[in-house]
Amino acid sequence: MNGLEMFLGDGWEVQPAGGATGEAYVARYGDQQVFLKRNSSPFLAVLSAEGIVPKLLWTKRLENGDVITAQRWVKGQELKANQMKDSQVANLLSTIHGSSELLDMFKRIGNEPLVPEVMLENLHIQTELADIGSDRIQLGMDYLKSNIHKVKDFPSVVCHCDINHNNWMIDDASRNLYLIDWDGAMVADPALDIGLLLYSYIAEQDWPEWLHNYGIELDQSLRDRMHWYVVAQTITLITWHYERGQPEEAMKFREYLVTLL
């Protein structure tokens, strides 16, 4: 902390901004306030230029090699779960998935598309390492294997991969919507993001309207792809909670997996 204050200069106060990584800070100097992140996403400049995240002010490299980014401080609110149905959410996600600049940047820094075969192999490794002997998980893995042909060979886009409502923020002043926390983003089928969002937040009868706002129609292929990725993500969450000693949370997702299958 003191290192950041020394780096910014006299008069700046730096405090943790929360978050899972512990690498985010709020810096204040009088009436000025900025959001700082240590070693943030390398494509933050593109996200800022396209209005997907709050404006990037500067980027500087420290002597130890860490990169500090400063963004405009936005006084805003996280979206509530019931706000995820808003057309503004669908429009922003469509903008992100449709950004050729973002996709080019991802590919330039070596991000290979996450193909279903690799995703399935990673899940095998995760479940074996977690040592979860579960018929339910085996049923899920069998489903993914037998239906993998339904998710092959679709165009890839930049997916956020963590579309939880807490990562969507609306600016109190401008009413601009932002999607933040890009640390887990990857190149993948857009059905990965769309499926997680619809299954988590949107009543099934409202899917066609939400997707219309996004810019696509609901067909059987999209249904199959969304379902495949939601099953895969649910198994990932089961192993994640088991590895962290959270059996009750893991059990909730095991029960959810049953409903999916």
Automatic annotation (TrEMBL):
Limits of the Aminoglycoside phosphotransferase domain: 16-228
InterPro entries: Aminoglycoside_PTrfase, CcrZ_PhaseVar_Mediator, Kinase-like_dom_sf
Record-given protein name: Thiamine kinase-like enzyme
Source organism of this protein record: Alkalicoccobacillus murimartini
